[in-house]
Design goal:
Elements (H helix, E strand, L loop, with lengths): L10 H12 L11 E4 L6 E6 L5 E6 L14 H15 L9 E3 L9 E5 L4 E2 H4 L5 H18 L18 H18 L8 H11 L10 E3 L8 E4 L2 E5 L6 E3 L19 H7 L9 H24 L6 H15 L8
Antiparallel strand pairs: 1-2, 2-3, 3-5, 4-5, 6-8, 7-10, 8-9
């Protein structure tokens, strides 16, 4: 995916980064040792074969001169913190961090190195799989998400703090930050910004039911899952994790917005009894989370510098669909 946030580097700089991480003796030479991994939306990532044959992924944060959305600031530090939490507190497979550098001595951004995992990207191969195979992977993703959510935090908010005492305060701050990002760049939502704020305020009472901060990935779509031989072998891209309400996870989006797919297997794998197991309060919260998500999806297309408007148009349709679920009257 093309994005202004991708901090691409010349071959000489990539060699210097490899030398810093592994020593000069392992720096590759010749041709064909580096390939950009193109499916991500935010950071640039390279697959690199070292001189001794070991394969790594080098991930580089956006350059400082590129404006990102408020919640994306410090995203690589968040990812490193998330990887440590997941590796130390769960059995969910995530990459090991082989080297990380936040000094900005060689390039103008944070970067880190992890092993290359030889597996298929589930989001890419999904259309080639049978319904039975998709069901199995979706259920496994639900189970993995539940285990990730078992990690407890001290406060709601960023993994590295500072956090806040209530989920209501944290979530309302997240929504306001996204709306502020949109207003700053004059993004056309197709809806009045203050009218969106009114919808959120009218329905915010349901958020007080969430009292325990839990680790959430938030961005755990099938495109961030690597699979092989019927099982999940790695979960990648953790830069949007925070402590919040597990119901905000990506796997639950389709319980309210079926344009995102069929959530049945994910929900079953998570340990819920299906859509009927969600309470009225949970359904209301999920509508708010979908509103936040679709706002992000619309506004981020401008920050990424997309020239193709299809993603923007699709996201605006989903935003309108989400707002329509609230109706004209405030929730009681």
């Amino acid at each position: 995916m093309e994005s202004l946030t991708k901090n691409r580097q010349p071959i000489g700089t990539l060699r210097a980064l490899v030398g810093r991480a592994f020593g000069e003796a392992r720096v590759p030479d010749g041709d064909g040792w580096v390939h950009e991994l193109g499916h991500g939306w935010f950071n640039v990532a390279y697959r690199i074969r070292l001189r001794d044959g070991h394969q790594i992924v080098l991930k580089i944060a956006p350059p400082p001169g590129v404006e990102v959305m408020t919640y994306e600031r410090g995203a690589m530090a968040t990812e490193l913190a998330a990887l440590e939490l997941v590796r130390s507190r769960t059995s969910v497979p995530v990459p090991a961090v082989e080297f990380a550098d936040t000094s900005h001595e060689l390039i103008d951004a944070d970067w880190f190195v992890m092993p290359f995992v030889d597996a298929d990207n589930y989001g890419i191969i999904r259309p080639t799989l049978s319904a039975h195979e998709q069901d199995g992977y979706d259920a496994a993703l639900g189970a993995a998400t539940r285990e990730l959510n078992s990690i407890r935090g001290e406060a709601f908010g960023p993994l590295g703090g500072p956090g806040v005492a209530t989920w209501r305060e944290q979530f309302l701050g997240m929504v306001e930050a996204v709306l502020g990002d949109g207003e700053r760049r004059e993004v056309d939502l197709g809806h009045d910004y203050d009218a969106v704020r009114d919808v959120v305020a009218a329905n915010a009472g349901c958020l007080t039911a969430v009292t325990e901060p839990r680790f959430v990935e938030w961005d755990l779509w099938d495109s961030n899952v690597l699979v092989r031989d019927g099982r999940i072998v790695c979960v990648i891209d953790h830069e949007r994790a925070f402590f919040g309400d597990p119901l905000i996870e990506a796997g639950f989006v389709a319980t309210q917005l079926r344009s995102f797919g069929d959530p049945t297997a994910f929900v079953r794998g998570y340990g819920r009894r299906g859509s009927t197991s969600f309470t009225s309060n949970e359904r209301r919260r999920r509508r708010l989370y979908n509103l936040h998500l679709t706002l992000v999806m619309v506004i981020e297309t401008v920050y990424r510098g997309h020239t193709d408007t299809r993603q923007y148009a699709w996201a605006r349709e989903r935003l309108t669909e989400t707002l329509a679920q609230f109706g004209s009257a405030p929730a009681s």
